[in-house]
Every structure is written in C-alpha cells, then in structure tokens.
Amino acid sequence: MSARQPGANDRPVYLDYQATTPTDPRVLAAMLPYFTEKFGNPHSASHRFGHEAEAAVERARAQVAALIGAEPREIVFTSGATESNNLAIKGAARFLRAHSRDAAPRDRIVTLATEHKCVLEAAARLAEEGFALDCLPVERSGLVDLERLAAAIGPRTALVSVMAANNEIGVIQPLAAIGALCRERGALFHTDAAQAAGKIPLDVAAMGIDLLSISGHKIYGPKGIGALYVRRRPRVRLMPLIDGGGQERGFRSGTLPTPLCVGLGEACALAAAEMAAEAARLLALRRRLLDAVTRRLPETQLNGDAERRLPGNLNLAFPGIDAEALLARCPAVAASTGSACSSASIEPSYVLRALGLDAAMAAASVRIGLGRFTTEAEVDFAADALVAAIGDLKGR
Fold this sequence. Notes:
Layout: E1 13-14, H1 25-31, H2 33-36, H3 48-68, E2 75-78, H4 81-98, E3 108-112, H5 117-128, E4 132-136, H6 146-152, E5 157-161, H7 175-185, E6 188-192, E7 211-215, E8 226-230, H8 258-296, E9 301-302, E10 313-317, H9 323-329, E11 333-334, H10 350-354, H11 359-363, E12 365-369, H12 376-393
Parallel strand pairs: 1-11, 3-4, 3-5, 5-6, 6-7
Antiparallel strand pairs: 2-8, 7-8, 9-10, 10-12
Helix pairs in contact: 1-8, 3-8, 4-5, 8-12, 9-12
C-alpha cells in the first residue's frame, strides 16, 4: 500500500480536478484586500476607492489576456464559462443574422456532439429561433474529423464552436487547423477553453480564434468569475445578453466583482508562469496511475485519444463494473462518472456514447482528474483503492 492511508474520518483523495479546483492560497491572498480595505466600485470614477478598484480590474484583465496572447481590451469579464459560451454563441449569431447584407444571411451554427451542455443548449436555443444547426460526430478518439468539419462550413455558416479540451475525456482538439478552416470560409471560430486555459499553451492569434471562453474555478481561481475573449481585429461584434449600464464595452452590463476579477487574473498569471512544469508533473502522475491500474487490471480501457489529452486527465472504463457502484464502494477516492454539470442524469455519458461506447461501457467509466495539489502518495493510494474496490465488486 502507499504511504497515504486515510482513516475513517479523513477527507478522500481529491481526483476530480475537471469538475472544479481548490482556490490556490496565493490567489486567495491577492483577493482578500478587495473584500474589506479596497472595496470600491470599479466604475466609480470620482474618488480614490473607485480608482484603485478599477486599477485592480484592469491589471487582472491584462493578466487574463497575457495567458492567451490577447490584448487586455479584448477581455470581457463574465460570471463563468457558461455565460461566456452563451454570450459568444448567441451574441455572435444573432448579430450576424440581424446585420447581414448578403442575400443569403449567415444563419448556420456548427458544433460537435461532445461539446459541453451549455454549448449544445445555447446552439439548440438558436435552432428554435430559426438558425440551422449542424452537430457533427467525432472520431472514436474524440477528435474532430477535419474533412467532415470543412465540408460542414459553408457560405451561410455564422459560427463554429469546438471545445479546446473536453471536460470528460480531456481530448485536445486541433485548434489551429480549425481556426484556419474558419478563416478561409469567413466563419467565426469560438472555443470553450474552460478546461484548456492555463493547462496547455493557447495563442488566439496563431490559432485563428475569434471568441474564447475561460472559467476561474477550473484554474485554481474563485467560482463565479470567467472571461470571454472577443477579437478586435478583424472585429467581432456581439448582441449582449444582459441590458444595463453598458459596462465591458457594452457586451456585459453589471458592476464587476473586483475581488473575483483579481482572483481570476492572479490565477491566470500563476498558470502562465507554472504551466510547463505543472504539465510535466501531471503527465508523470497520470502515467503512474494508469500503469498501476492496468498492471493489475489489464482489461481496463482508456477512453479518448491516448496522447492528445490534458496532462491530468484519465477516463477509464472497467468492463463489467458499474462506475457508480465502484465510487460508492471506494469513498476514499473522490472521482466522478462524467461531467459535474450532468451528474443528475441517470443516462450514460453522451460524450462517451459519441465515441462509440455502448451503454454498458459508458456506465463502466470513471473520470479521474489530477491537479496542482495531487501527490504521488495520493495517486498510489487511489490506484490501490480502486483496484481493491473492483476486486470486491467482482467477488475476487
């Protein structure tokens, strides 16, 4: 057994970093003064309290921009990736259709069957408004077929939305190739980068990305804050979802939460500084865990591409095992059976089904997310605990 052997009252080993991450203590320390000492409204222009809050927000905006190779003025703060995705998809599509000068307006949306629910539901809402929706399948690996995608992007395509890294299987899509296709055909390219930002290098200019969504709580920042990158050259225009005082270049009205903006900025700065080292460490931990499990359970299957995936992600199928029963039998390990946003559903993961897994294999799959605070001892303990629980369920 590993060195870590928690007692009955200990908290479980946390291996669900795709669901959420703990706020880094350094992020919390940066935020705290803006709750009490520097509490001004960043939109109050007539006194020092407002000025120092505004300066903190603009510093955070620059930190977010630097992480993805953007300009600070291209960053719009939101409440999180769900809002960012909705603003990008609905805002861009509605604006293009309303202001089209072409005889055939751009009224088609292209996305993938494995996208996050908020992307799929936003696109479905547009379909109810008369937009055409192409929801493309993916390969068994979880990757998009670029030829199929190219064939789907026509002169009436307004927007293509493809997730940078999948929240369940961790598969990283070829963003630069997708961006090039969209640019050639005059369609906007949006990517939900909630899982990718801060974990893999992103460059919106080099990758041809027009709109990009970020979530604070996926990168060791606070919950309740996110950002949307909106390209300025060539300019991307959006119809806002929220009416109000016209903050955030008119894209997102409402008083900005200064402490949360500061937290997101600090989280992005830390991620940028530590990304390479953290990725290497997580990749080593991922290999260690996978080897420890498959050595004793060789029938274990890895869902999604083995190489083009986030360093800290594993999605494993254990044939003949019900994943919910496994996690119930193994309370010392905090993992999940899929997206936290879909955990209330009793249906097998739609992402895994899109990869071609049958219902039984999808229901036998566990998502394991390693992160900044995961240790070797925890990985060893988790492998032992999962293997032992599977043995119990199989009556070994």
